[in-house]
Design a protein that fits this description.
Blueprint: H1 6-17, H2 23-33, H3 44-56, H4 63-75, H5 79-92, H6 101-111, H7 114-131, H8 133-143, H9 149-157, H10 160-164, H11 170-180, H12 186-200, H13 204-213, H14 220-227, H15 232-247, E1 276-279, E2 288-291, H16 329-334, E3 346-347, E4 353-354, H17 356-367
Antiparallel strand pairs: 1-2, 3-4
Helix pairs in contact: 1-4, 3-5, 4-5, 5-7, 6-7, 7-8, 7-9, 8-9, 9-12, 12-13, 12-14
Amino acid sequence: MDDFDPATAALAVTDALRPLGTPERAAREKGYLKSDLQFLGVGVPDLRRVVKAAVRARPDLDPGQLVAWAVALWREPVHERRAAAVEILTLAAPRLAASDLATVERLLRDSCTWAYVDALAGNVAGEVVLRDPAGAWPRVDAWAVDEDFWLRRSALLALLRGIRVGAPDLARFTRYAEPMLTEKEFFVRKAIGWVLREISRRDPAWVAGWTAGHLAEMSGVTFREAVRRLPAAEGERLGRLRQRNADLGGLTVGRGRVKEQPPQPGKRPGLQPGDVHLGDAEPGGDLLLRVVAVKPHDEDPLLAAGQLAPVLGHRLHVDRLPESGVLRAEQLAEFGGAVLPARGGVERQRGERVGGLAGLAQFVRRDAEPFGQLPVGGQPS
């Protein structure tokens, strides 16, 4: 359409929207979004109806003209104009090219709110990468490591379109999400969980496994979204495992995550200050070494028979040895994949920290009696 003028078309949309707004809605939405933009107070259904009618009235517009129309709407600092721009791009998305993502990125950087970002990323960018993966993914991959957290969120949400049509890119999701798991930004944490929730509609087993493998790094909001649509029993199991991980203070085993263990009969249900927990000490079992912080003592009397005492100034301070077995230096070497949580650790009597499992193994080998066991009551056990 040769006579199409984007600015004129944008003004026509604005004129159609203005009488549909109310001051009350404008004030409420402005406060809700914490925005500095002007608000006309138009509801989403009315806005979409106006935009769809305007686009249908111009069926001969090519993709470039539709993009120009959206950009013209975006230029004015009015919420409804920007929302209309997003709607036009959403309607045009099946016809857009990978090169149009440059414009989408400019709008994403200028959005500063989920109200525009989520549709631009999920509906527009997501559609483009689905149709032209080779041309579009390199730009979206760059979003995943951008300094702007809205771009990082957008990279994650661009995966949603493929997930919803049954073509999830699970490897790309993992590559995006793993470095973001420890972020403090709520909108990134929420987006990771959102994508997991969508994947779980078709593949709950994959989501359950991925979640279980990343519990140590996963925030509460990410976890809640990830398990929201899982079977209730699976969600409860993961919740218990996550709580166990929290109780262990971030203790990591193997690749950095606590492995689920079946309950062991006869184990004490809780730990007291000063306890060292040796779980599943049988050969080949996972070593779960848990240390509860205790203030160092200058002197302690020997405890009752069967309990451990800080028998010498340089010995390990614990209160009780579980019946499951004793910890030998060679066992520590065997279970070299386990590390101590940063906030726990093992302390000498005078508060000197022995860092990590290797340090603990060296500590025990140097200080233990010839039998290689922790001393009980000052005597080899």
